[in-house]
Fold this protein.
Amino acid sequence: MTESNYKGHLISRRSFIKSSAIAAAATGLTVTGCASSPEGKTATTVKKKITSDKPNILIITCDQLSFDAISANGNSDVRTPGMDRIFNSGTSFDNTYCQFPLCSPSRASFWTGRLPHQTRVMANDAKMIHNRTVTIGSLFSEAGYETKHFGKTHDFGSLRGFDVARDNIEHKADAPEAFPEHYQSKRDRVTLELATRYLQQEHETPFLLAVEFYNPHNINNWIGAFKDRFDNMPDMGNLPALRANHNNKDMVNRPNAIKHACCTTTRQRQAAHWSEQNFRQYLKAYYYYTEMADDCVGKVLDALEQSDAADNTLIIFMSDHGDGMGSHNLVAKSHFFYDETTRVPFVMSGPGIAKGKNVTSLTGLCDLLPTLCEYVGIQYPENIYGRSLQPLLNDTQEPKDWRKSIVSQWYSMEGHSIQPARMIRTRNFKYTHFIEDNGEELYDMINDSGETRNLVSDPVYKETLASMRKTFADYLDDTGDDYLSMHAIPGENTRNHNIGYSSHPK
Ligand code: ZN
């Protein structure tokens, strides 16, 4: 169905010329189109000549990195000089949301430009995507790019078209007792080494290189290592303050799915009895693993800068989803859509991209595919949810036809607990819906960006609620999302304690 509707999106002449001009400016070559050469070279040679005028693309991703956990975004408890270099030299899309705050569904979504219910990857133990679904890797490899992938995959087929290194080799190192290393940190060292080596090579054809780091995802295993602890943690030095929205004083107004998040997710259950001190230690560890990732990011940038590709490479930096950061007493990620877990960094830097610009329009990781395609002049399917960010890069004002809302989804982590939910973010409000008990949340994102007051029952916001419900219904219709036919299965022995995670039975 979606595949048979594929028509190919025709790049407008204006934007194609713009893309070509960017590439030409970067290589110092003149784009002359497809005229046959006087020497009568073969079609293959002509194709190679044309494709070699294209810019390279370097996609660097982190895993579980929140927008707020980066020093360039105002967090003074963490130091991320590597990531900050990309923010300072490029354009940041400050309101980028992931389409599912979980690794595999988010990745399958951004590699295809489609929503998770369309890729069918709605948990970390999903089916493979349809083998005809167009992916970034398939489009770029067919266009003559060398498509190379190092690092975390979790793709369920969405990395089709990439030459993927799936060896999962680990390099160990001595780790402090307070910050134990799981496989993620060990594999990141290998990913850095492979990416650096690749960038040092000479490249005859343009490349699309994806370098995907696990960290700060190692924080999940930190929670497991220190579960239920109170005062017997190792020394961690100075601890950061809790975030302003750490205490959830509004718990009584939240949907059952939030009141009992401890019953639904393993990591939340492990942190259910933590003290405030433990949450500060958690934040410290989260920043520690973020800084490990940042060190890798900085070294990849160094390798690029020392290579021949330095002046002709577009850099994208992003994360697949965020982390609870202890806000609302929540850790890791699951079926909750607070900004800490759903709002992610998305920055572009390179030829033709404005420096130090911040775009506040509503954007999503799903926009990656059409944006990259338009940047280099590759056709892409027109029926995908993602949209090219090119108009936001070029124009000083948001185009009138830009999207008015963006969605994020949840179904399950690994099947044992099913909690279908959706989030709709508009410029001013965030609305969430849970199948369980028809639970709803409504937040004023302008006056309460910490999402501390659920306004669903507030009569003052009656019209806003009606409007957001309409936006949500329109979204379901427009995208063919059969969400309302799904069923929640919260799991066994749950919802049987007083609200508040610390009430969860030990
Ligand atoms: Zn519980």
About this structure: The chain is about 30% helix and 15% strand. The CA atoms of residues 263 and 494 lie 5 Å apart. The longest strand covers residues 418-426. The first helix runs from residue 13 to 27.
